[in-house]
Fold this protein.
Amino acid sequence: MKVSFTQNERGNVLLCAVCTIFVVSLIAANVLLNCTARYNQASNQVRSWNEALYAAESGADIAYNEVRKIASNPASAFGASNGWATSGTTYTSGTTTFGTNGLRTSQTVDLFYSDPTSGNAWYRIRSKGISPLQGLKRTGMDDRLSNGNRFAANGATRGDGDTLLRKIDFKYDHFTATYGPTGDGTNKAIVAVSPAPQLSRRIELIAAPVGPFDDVAIKVTGNFYGLGSAAYIDIYRSSAGPYDPSVKTNPSDPRYADSQSGTLPPPSWETSTETFTPMAERPQRKRSTFTAPSTTMCRLRWTRSQYRPTYLRLKPRPPI
Amino acid sequence: MKLTHNSHQSGFTLAEILTAMAIAVVIFAAIITASLAMQKSFNAVDHYFATHIQQVRIIDYLNRDVKRALICTTSVNQQTVTLTIPKYIIQSGDAEAVSNPSLVGAMRSPTISTTASGVQVNYGTATSTVVYSINGASILRTEDGVVTTIASSTDQLVPSTIDTDLANTEKTTMAVTFHPIFTSGNVADERTGTTVFSLAYLRNKRRG
């Protein structure tokens, strides 16, 4: 009997090598898959979520700048040439795109309150910031898909883990589906996002009118005979520029005359019990006699027709 | 029958086989040890990044709530944070919703009131209470009694929050650490090395 080896028996070695490579490749692929998912979530999704807030903050600054024009240059405030549309006392901006990541922002400003005393307007600024989702179009590893409602566009509970906090619009705009396009609960609709998955965040802030004299007060106890000849009221024309406390003692300043006599109408003096009007042109010479029933704070207040307020941004509402 | 001797078909000597087996054992031992080490390292790294993601999530949750809060109170042991938040959105059971159920989910319009401390902007009269707390290995966020687990890890996540009253507002500093599963030395140092820190200011005027 002749015993001989055939060429086919050499395939065992090749098969073992291929199997080993296959197993090692599976392990490597698993490592890469997990690392990619972690990186995508920890870096791209968190970054886009934070950038959306930055975009909303930038949009709020854009709108706040328009509100300030109401004080400095009313004719140019919320101008159509800057992309603003006006409907009554509500102003809506166009969409501003900026940054290398294509951040977008849009705003709505509305007059929501008028001071009954001064007539000054308070404005609410609603700003929306959108950041396109960078990286993979994929949820994180901690966002379980055990419930069919978790990623429904208008589901009561949307996702777990990061998805519950960072509501990513992979395919549909969750805000429009849940609250409506303006957030007033009307016109809810399933609207596809375009052109890519995105994250949107919204903030709200209040632009409050602030007059230079709002904090001026005179403490009166018993009889009050006016300010006296050595005193003055720091009257000021806010439409002529920012408030400068040195004007009233600087005769070379063109606004000095205003601070001493000025052409502004007289202020009304308000107390908790009565109101009277001092002399017009030179308030420091006022000699009106006022008998306060007790210690009373007298506040000088000008009406809106007499000064233009500056605006202070405050009370921003955080993102939802 | 005549057997032909072919040198290619000759066997191995015992010494050759023993030597080959010894070498094979060493090689397999090295491969198995390396595989186990790689698996352990992979698990450790995977846990590290998974826990890091939860760190960032805790920070982002707290940041968002602190910024919109009226009051922020931290317990003495810095493990529990209680926040009072305006109800910016009309919810079921609110006065507006009782009279007009279609308003549920709508944003509440602000109102202005003058108080002894100045002008206040209010979003309704009711507020929501949000509490962050630790329960075992989980970090819980409870809003008006509804509990949400925002992070859960066997790596001993520990958030620490301090609130500081300022003149008209308040700031809160937050630090979240965890204990990585691959530990090689000083546990305290390893935990410190995982610290993620954040600072947030209340954007509303402090009410309490």
About this structure: The mean pLDDT of chain B is 82.
